[in-house]
Specification:
Elements lengths: L1 H22 L6 H22 L43 H8 L1
Helix pairs in contact: 1-2
Length: 103
């Protein structure tokens, strides 16, 4: 578990550095990069002092699969019995015409 945190922090730091190089702006995301570096240093220190876990390479981790965030449900019944669509009777007018009439 701890090694995953280490790898995520390391990967985030690499992404920040890559973004800075591609954009040609060395200070872009610098606050986030500094925070990731501090957390990475702290995580490495904790691992060396407390956990002594071997940190695997980034390639050895399996990818996280996709998850369904929401499931659509069919409408069980009509919301209103008296609903009439305004678009079907051509009652909608262009906005410019409405502004001209009411101004």
């Amino acid at each position: 578990m701890f090694s995953i945190i280490f790898i995520v922090l390391w990967h985030a730091l690499e992404l920040f550095k890559g973004a800075q190089q591609r954009l040609g702006k060395p200070n872009y995301f610098q606050d986030y990069a500094n925070k990731a570096q501090r957390n990475l240093t702290q995580a490495k220190k904790d691992n060396d002092f407390i956990y002594h876990e071997k940190i695997p390479g980034e390639k050895s981790l399996h990818s996280v699969g996709k998850a369904m965030l929401a499931k659509s449900l069919p409408v069980q019944e009509r919301m209103s019995q008296n609903f009439k669509s305004k678009g079907t009777n051509n009652t909608l007018k262009p906005l410019i015409l409405t502004k001209t009439v009411f101004n």
